[in-house]
Amino acid sequence: MKGRYGHGRHGHGEIARRRQSTDRSPRPPRGRHLESPPDAGSRWTRARSIINRTDAPILVSVADKPSIRVLCCEKMAGDMERALGALRDFTRRDILLRFYADRKPRSVEDVARESGVHRSVAFEHLERLVALGYLEVAHRRGLPGKPAKIYKLTGGPVQISHPMRRYDIVGESLARAFDELGDVGSHAVRRAGRSFGEAISMPGAKSPVAALEPMQEMGSEYDMDRGGIIHCTNCLFAEVCRRAPVICRFHAGIIEGLFLHTEMNVSVKALGFRDPYGCAYMLQENLLGDELEAQAQ
User: Fold this and answer.
1) What is the pTM (predicted TM-score) of this model?
2) pLDDT tens figures, 163-192
């Protein structure tokens, strides 16, 4: 008998050849998920792209629905784990909320000092928030030596919804529909905002800051300069407004409604989206009367 490594008739080489000749069972293509049906490759890819789209109507066929249901569950679970990962630890939550309260970039030393923790602890939490997608890393130049590593807020609002709700899709779809109606739709959006603002207003407010309190209690943040410009540093409608600017007119209508029952006779002009989180508005003396006020842009 010859060597044991394939040279005899009972060697490994002969055994391998016999197995190749007898094993005719089909094998799944490399890279395909074993739990997906054989013809589901294209539908699975298409379903994944549909789930991630928020800027167009979602149209699915009956055959797509099982895939989309699975992907929806995956995305919901992923979003929830992402949010919980950011909020679960008290120190990490405190650091993230400080970035939302004041969006200026911060170094590790800045965060450690503000949060009262050791530099290594701050670094660990910052890197975790980067991995979760809430912060991004940049480098501050202009200083001697190695550029300082700084962290900036990049993620949108922290949202946890179970069961999942997507009111942003409803808001954006309606906003686009009104925008397609031209001036008629624009005026309707503004009137809707004014009605809402009037409903939550504080009659008799003596200053713009006091008049804006109902919106501030809901989470909006405003700064006002001496030129009559209201800077909304945290717009409640920012994500929808970015994709459908007609929402700025809805917001302008709300501000007008807040001022309706005060001594301030003003109209509000929307100045548009200013940064990733807010917008701006100009207060103007109302000289046009109620009829033309409803058409102010």
Assistant:
1) 0.62
2) 778 888 898 999 999 999 999 999 999 999
Q: Is the dihedral of CA 67, 73, 77, 82 positive or negative?
A: positive
Question: Residue 118 is encoded by which pair of tokens?
Answer: 């050791």
pLDDT digits (tens, 9 = 90+) for 95-106: 988 988 888 889
What 3 state SS string does the chain have?
CCCCCCCCCCCHHHHHHHHHHHCCCCCCCCCCCCCCCCCCHHHHHHHHHHHCCCCCCCCCCHHHHHHHHHHHHHHHHHHHHHHHHHHCCHHHHHHHHHHHHCCCCEEHHHHHHHHCCCHHHHHHHHHHHHHHCCEEEEEECCCCCCCEEEEEECCCCCCCCCCCCCHHHHHHHHHHHHHCCCHHHHHHHHHHHHHHHHHHCCCCCCCHHHHCHHHHHHCCEEEECCCCEEEEEECCCHHHHHHCCCHHHHHHHHHHHHHCCCCCCEEEEEEEECCCCCEEEEEEECCCHHHHHCCCC
CA pair distance 58, 51, nearest whole angstrom: 8
- pLDDT one-digit tens code per residue, 107-126: 999 999 999 999 999 999 99
Give pairs for 98-102: CB < 8 Å, separation 24+. Answer: 99/134, 99/135, 99/151, 99/153, 100/153
Residues 6+ apart with CB under 8 A from 17: none
CATH number given to 167-293: 3.30.1380.20
Domain 83-153 and domain 167-293, same fold? Reply is: no
Domain boundaries, the chain: 83-153, 167-293
- Under 8 Å CB-to-CB from 62, ≥6 apart: which residues? none
Which CATH architecture group holds 83-153? Orthogonal Bundle (1.10)
Q: Which range, 38-52, 80-94, 172-186, 232-246, is most confident?
A: 172-186
